[in-house]
Structure formats: C-alpha cells, structure tokens
C-alpha cells in the first residue's frame, strides 16, 4: 500500500499546505535548521505566568514591558493568521581551546555569543524566507522578530513544534538540543499549524541542581535578577556572592545547558560563520583591561557579546582575575583601584585584590581608602582590607605557634 496516497475521506491539501511543504523543503538553503508553524492565536496561558514573574521581581528589565504585546500576536498592516518559528543551531564545543594558566589567565564567553552575532544570522535567514514567500504570495503581510521582538520566542517555538520547554527555560529540540537560536515571523497567511513536541524533561533536575546562583527557582522558572547570564551583562556593582560565583565568565552562562542530558554529544559545525575564534571567545584577561573602545569593537564587535559595550566585560575580567587569585594581576588592579574613573571597576578591583592577597595588594587597598569617596567602593575596599589584615594576623599567630613549638621541641 502506498502510504502517500490521499485518503478519500481527507480534504485535499490546500495551497497553504503546499506552500508550507515548499518552505520546509527550502529551509536549509535559506539558512534555517528547523522550522515550525503555529496559529496566531493569543498565548493566553502565558499572561498570568509573565505577570507572576513580574510580581516576584524575576524580570531582567530587557523584556518588552507590555504583557499584551508579548502574548497577543499582531501585524501593523494586516490581520495575523499564523506564526513561523525558525531555529538555527550553533556549536557547543571548541577545537583546541587555549589553556588558562598562571600569568596567562583566560575568561570565557557563553556559546550563544560564539561566532557571528546571531541577531544578524537570524535576520538574514528571515529576510530570505520573506523573499521566498513574497515570490509566491506577493500580497502577504509579514513581520519578523529576533530576540528583541515583542513575542516570547520560546513560547512561539514550543507551540510551533521546534522543541519542548525545558526546566532550564530553554527550548530543547529532539534533534538539535538546546544549542539553537530562535526567531519568528508573524504572517497574514493561514498556514496549517504543526503539532508541539511531546517529549519532556521527565524527573531530571540536573539544571536546577547545577545553577550556580539558584536562579532556576523551579522547573521552567528563572529569577533573571540572580542569573549569571544576566549579571554579566549589567554595568554596576555586584555583590560578593555573585562575583565569587561568576568565576571567569565574561559574558553569559552555559551551566544549565552543559549539564542537560538532552545536549549530550550535540555540537554543530555546519555553519562556518558561527564557529568560535578561540582567542575571542576564550580571551586573555589582562589585555582586556587595556582595550580602547575602538580596539574592543575590533576584537569583539562581530560577537553578540559586544552589544552592552566593553564596560561589563572589563569589570567581569577584573572579577575573573580575583577568582583566579592571579598574583600577576596585582599591578594592573592597583592601577585600577587608584586611578580608574569608573567606580564599579574600582570596586571590583578592590574585591579582586582582597581575593588575591599579599603585601602589595594590602598596600594598594590602604592607599585606595585614603582618597576614595564613593561609598560602595569604600565598602568593598574596606571589606577586602579587613579580610587581608585578618589573614595577615592569622599568619603571624601561626608563625608564633610554630616558633614556640620548635622551642619546646628543642628543650625536650
């Protein structure tokens, strides 16, 4: 029996079924790895979730503030009939990553910022898709969105059958894992919808257990204010707890995706423009502190990590040097804590000197407190100084104890 034979009781494929099949067949050539279709019905279930998220103070502040816009698809010049969701897969592994060693410590960028800025990659794919559709339906109304659009990318992708919503708040594709960029297009064409993916996380809680700051407050619930990915993109002061937990991350955090069993063995290298330059995505930390704005753009400008500018990345580099307890960084950190105009940099440098320790760090902190006027910087410098003085005092007591013990042994 030919399984492709149309049942006599089923309606014949509409022109929109046929166009959808054409689009799916052409997706790879358009730069799209996965594509799904859903209705333009409102995401009614989502509004209460987003409101509760806001009421709990879990928003990052980067979101569209109007919840109606986030949950009700719209077209400026037409009636929305369906939404097309696209996914582009990116790599999760680096070939021959450079080593981070004493005297040559390195930071790391999250995998979503490796290679070319994904905003450009997705916009180009959606632009090609729009041309493809317009050649066949000249009067179609289409509006594409990438990341900064009003709709919730993950909700659209889930309903379109790209993947299921994981406990780590990522869309997890059965084929691609969660290493995917998402974008969508609202259209006036009534495409038949795809079925959502039925797979799920089951009893697994590895992502929740592994989150460094406990930002995953429940399955599929993220407190963005505590998420390291968000924290690395802020421009102000960070608490001692968050600075410690950032480790050497310069931009973003991949922990909840790295530990996910659904991502095991998945890394994608079929798109050359998304492959990482090891010296960009795992850069030496000390040189970052010397970059001018122009040099920063030259080094990081093609990455999505550059969107917030150099200030957060330089602050994070200072924090990373503190977490490495990198003694070779003390001269530069001393220069920062004494002369840097940005208070958040002086504060991070004071904290880092407190982590590294030693006579030079102690002297730098004492000097900084003599002229520091910013309250938050003073608090960080004072805490770092007290920590080092306590360690120094403890060291002296340990020396005295050893001397007394040696004298006692000699008299025995």
Topology:
Elements: H1 15-26, E1 34-39, H2 44-55, H3 67-71, E2 82-89, E3 108-109, H4 118-136, E4 142-145, H5 153-159, E5 164-165, E6 171-172, E7 180-187, H6 206-210, E8 216-218, E9 221-222, H7 228-231, H8 240-246, E10 249-251, H9 255-258, H10 278-281, H11 285-288, H12 293-300, H13 310-324, H14 330-339, H15 343-356, H16 359-371, H17 375-411
Helix pairs in contact: 13-15, 14-15, 14-16, 15-16, 15-17, 16-17
Q: Helix-strand pattern, N to C?
A: HEHHEEHEHEEEHEEHHEHHHHHHHHH
Q: What is the oligomeric state here?
A: single chain
Sheet of most strands: 4 strands, antiparallel
The percent of residues in helical segments reads: 40-55%
Provide the structure class. alpha+beta
Anisotropy-based shape:
elongated
Instruction: Give the N-to-C terminal Cα separation.
Output: 100 Å
The radius of gyration computed from the alpha-carbon positions, rounded to a whole number of angstroms, is: 26 Å
What is the count of β-strands?
Answer: 10
Strand content: 5-15%
Task: Order the strands across the largest sheet as they lie in space.
Answer: 1-2-7-4
Low-confidence stretches: 1-5
Distinct helical segment count: 17
**Kindly state the mean pLDDT as a whole number?**
92
In short:
The protein has 412 residues and is an alpha+beta fold.
